């Protein structure tokens, strides 16, 4: 009533009184408060992987398991080789990816430490050294994807070859022709480590040395007897070993660094996704060597996609509970 009276007393053409700055701000605040706030989009968990078969498979397993928790996942699978993934993780461009314990030995320059040649020692070393960089190693797969030597099945059965000690005996009897990468032949951590542990020397004229590290090539050469080759450099969880009838020589003396796979995650990401560890640890605990070889074989031998193989395996685990 007072407002109306004041306005009327000033005449018809008089301007209304200008509201104070405080009143304008109060009104603006009231209007903002009356508009419902838009919920911020959840921050995605960025999952990376290397470009090899096993890396892609594990990357899909991680991504699909996290989506099963209701998390928003951004996939950057097949991103590249180890150093690209490692750099992206440390820079915060990805949140986690599957890595191998033994690689931390080379990241840290401690590869001559014998602790890396045991499962527990390699895992403890990876956790400790990466922990200082804000990275957390989740539960690992009990499958050692280290360098191995595999022998053609017929030769292994004929001469009873099952271990690296047996392999050393076959070398001494001039039975072995090996296909391997140049890195495997020359790196102190690879063939020379086998030779030192088992007391043999494989002459260079019995080795076909290849510039790349593709075990599909060396394994097939051994299986098919190309150029007289009957043994090949392989990795412990290669998928084609059974299909090619190759027998992996067991490293009973632990000559090689252990490479067990586990998700490596930024600590900050783990803090904001507390259910993540509980979801992933049981999955990786189930990935023993026969399981990983079988899953890899579905991709490399049967031609299925890594994404489809991962989905089927996860569905099978869910259905068996």
In summary, what is this structure?
α3 links the parallel β1 (about 45-50) and β2. The chain has two domains: about 45-145 and about 260-320, Periplasmic binding protein-like II (D-Maltodextrin-Binding Protein, domain 2, 3-Layer(aba) Sandwich), CATH 3.40.190; about 145-250, Osmoprotection protein (prox), domain 2 (D-Maltodextrin-Binding Protein, domain 2, 3-Layer(aba) Sandwich), CATH 3.40.190.
Taken together, the total number of domains comes to 2
What is the second-level CATH architecture of the largest domain? Answer: 3-Layer(aba) Sandwich
Mean pLDDT: 89
CATH superfamily of the largest domain: Periplasmic binding protein-like II
CATH fold category name of the largest domain: D-Maltodextrin-Binding Protein, domain 2
Strand content: 15-25%
Class by alpha and beta content: alpha/beta
- Strand neighbour order, sheet with most strands: 7-6-8-5-9
Largest sheet: 5 strands, mixed
- Strand element count: 10
- Rg from Cα: 30 Å
Number of helices: 15
What percent of the residues sit in helical stretches (DSSP H or I)?
40-55%
The geometry reads as globular
Output the CATH class name of the largest domain: Alpha Beta
- Write the element-wise H/E pattern from the N-terminal end onward: HHEHEHEHHEEHHEHHEHEEEHHHH
Low-confidence stretches: 1-37
First-residue to last-residue Cα separation: 75 Å
Explained architecture:
With 321 residues, the protein is of the alpha/beta class. It folds into 2 domains: 45-144 and 258-319, Periplasmic binding protein-like II (D-Maltodextrin-Binding Protein, domain 2); 147-248, Osmoprotection protein (prox), domain 2 (D-Maltodextrin-Binding Protein, domain 2), CATH 3.40.190. 46% of the residues lie in helices and 16% in strands. The strands form 3 sheets. Strands 7-6-8-5-9 form a 5-stranded mixed β-sheet. A 3-stranded antiparallel β-sheet has the order 3-10-4. Strands 1-2 form a two-stranded parallel ribbon. β1 (45-50), α3 (53-68) and β2 form a beta-alpha-beta unit. α3 (53-68) crosses α15 (306-319) and α5 packs across α6. It is globular, with a radius of gyration of 30 Å. The N and C termini lie far apart (75 Å). Mean pLDDT is 89; it is low at 1-37.
């Amino acid at each position: 009533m007072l407002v109306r009276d004041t306005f009327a007393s000033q005449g018809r053409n008089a301007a209304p009184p200008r509201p104070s700055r405080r009143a304008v701000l109060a009104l603006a605040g009231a209007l903002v408060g009356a508009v419902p706030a838009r919920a911020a989009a959840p921050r995605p968990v960025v999952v990376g992987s290397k470009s090899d078969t096993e890396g892609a498979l594990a990357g899909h397993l991680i991504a699909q398991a996290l989506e099963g928790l209701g998390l928003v996942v951004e996939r950057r699978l097949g991103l590249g080789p180890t150093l690209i993934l490692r750099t992206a993780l440390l820079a915060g461009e990805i949140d986690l990816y599957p890595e191998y314990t033994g690689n931390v030995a080379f990241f840290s320059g401690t590869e001559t430490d014998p602790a890396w040649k045991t499962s527990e020692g390699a895992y403890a070393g990876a956790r400790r050294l990466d922990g200082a960089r804000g990275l957390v190693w989740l539960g690992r797969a009990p499958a050692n994807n280290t360098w191995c030597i595999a022998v053609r099945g017929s030769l292994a059965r004929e001469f009873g070859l099952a271990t690296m000690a047996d392999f050393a005996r076959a070398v001494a009897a001039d039975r072995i022709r090996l296909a391997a990468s140049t890195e495997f032949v020359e790196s102190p951590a690879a063939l020379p480590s086998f030779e030192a542990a088992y007391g043999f020397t494989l002459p260079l004229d019995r080795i076909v040395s290849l510039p790349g590290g593709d075990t599909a090539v060396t394994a097939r050469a051994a299986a098919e007897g190309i150029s007289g080759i009957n043994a090949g450099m392989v990795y412990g969880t290669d998928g084609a070993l059974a299909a090619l009838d190759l027998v992996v020589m067991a490293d009973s003396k632990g000559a090689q660094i252990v490479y067990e796979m586990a998700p490596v995650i930024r600590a900050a990401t783990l803090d904001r996704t507390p259910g993540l560890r509980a979801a992933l640890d049981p999955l990786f605990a189930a990935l023993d060597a026969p399981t990983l070889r079988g899953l890899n074989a579905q991709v490399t031998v049967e031609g299925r996609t890594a994404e489809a193989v991962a989905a089927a395996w996860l569905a099978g685990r869910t259905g068996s509970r």
